[in-house]
Design a protein that fits this description.
about 130 residues; AhpD-like; 2 domains; about 80% helix
């Protein structure tokens, strides 16, 4: 397998610097050890974040909501920055936060009692 050249890896590093404001350690490590894997992840990520049918702003807000529901702090920070960089307003970010709250609460409200009921049935208590 052809290894990605140093110049190509540096372009990917710069893209991450531009996006994050710094070069994440995991990106550098992937570029050093498995540059082809980093390249393919980067290409997939571009499709998922760059303007397409959905604008980058909308995609950043979606990713923010997903990361909030997953309780992934790093992703939340990255996508709040990304949403602001893409032109999202504070109001749009807060609405995304509230929307994520609905999804997070729904999981708790639906799955919690359902799983409790299943467990109680197993124990013959329901």
């Amino acid at each position: 397998m052809k290894r990605l050249g140093r110049e190509e890896v540096e372009k990917i590093y710069q893209a991450y610097r531009d996006y994050y404001g710094f070069l994440p350690e995991w990106v550098q490590l992937m570029g050093e050890e498995v540059p082809d894997a980093l390249y393919h992840y980067y290409q997939l990520r571009k499709i998922g974040v760059d303007d397409g049918i959905l604008s980058r702003k909308v995609k950043e807000l979606i990713l923010l909501g997903i990361n909030l529901v997953r309780h992934y702090e790093t992703g939340t920070r990255v996508h709040i920055k990304g949403a602001l960089d893409a032109g999202a307003t504070t109001e749009e970010i807060f609405e995304t936060i509230v929307t994520a709250m609905v999804s997070g609460a729904a999981c708790s409200l639906i799955e919690g009692p359902q799983i409790l009921l299943e467990e109680l049935k197993k124990r013959g208590k329901r």
